[in-house]
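Exercise 3.2. Students should predict the tertiary structure of the chain below and write it as structure tokens, then compare their answer with the key that follows.

Predict this chain's 3D structure.
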Amino acid sequence: MDHGYAAMKTVHGSFPSGLVAYEHEPYTQKNVLEYGGTYYVVGSGRQPLQKDKTRTEDYYLLTLAAIAREMDCRSAERTCSVILAAGLPLTSFGRDKKKFRAYLLRDGKPVSFRYEGRDYAVTVRDVKLFPQGYAAVLTQTELLDEPSVIVADIGGWTVDLMRLDNAVPNADTCRSLGWGMIRCLDGAREQVRRTMGLSVTDAQIERVLSGLPCALDEKVREVIRQQGRTYTEHLLSAAMEAGFDLKAMPVVMLGGGASVVTRYVREGDRLCRMIPLHDSRINAAGFERLAEQMNVRGQA
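Answer key:
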């Protein structure tokens, strides 16, 4: 499970990290979590920036919704115990690991809740945490043959950068930059408002940036595309300033913003080699693979 600022990702799906509470039952059960006598509509909007995700109950509630959705994808029994495999940025891994594990584990006691009208009784019997980005790259064995690789995990609020030397993270190189995709979306929305006098949505902007059909006027779409290129230029420049020579070694781009950045990189940027991993769920897949390997070793 990948607890992103913009989206929650599991191996089989993702949904926006928004959460709205209601005292009374909403008119629909779609995306509705009932926990502790309160109703929550999940997947609406996006989370405010929380550098400490354990500060509120929001990410725990999103975790319950993600568990229910993933269990449904796997046709699992709704009364069961699970092992959660999740991640943290390498820059804060050592500092936050113990606190985030306790936040998700809740002493390993059973938790009862309802999601989309169905009852669940789930016991989180263990939580295994791994570094984001690095776990995703481990799913791509051919990348590990490179002596040095830069990994750029482009999320909603931040871009986490690290360098791998001989497949091992160089801890001294890890950086977290405030250049996540939300900067791109906000910049595009403001630019459209200034130049065209229109208020466009994140969904419209994301669709245009991805090159998908959209009913917006071509002039508006061009403004958004120009902002995509501007954001990409700023991000590449910020990475270089942080000490990552993108022209000297391959750069692996992953996370929700990878598809946008790789689309707007130009030949004139002269990157050494760009390796896009466009599946936004790839961190979650990496966490699961590592947890399975640990479980096998533990049984041996």
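Discussion points: The first helix runs from residue 58 to 73. The first strand starts at residue 2 and ends at 3.
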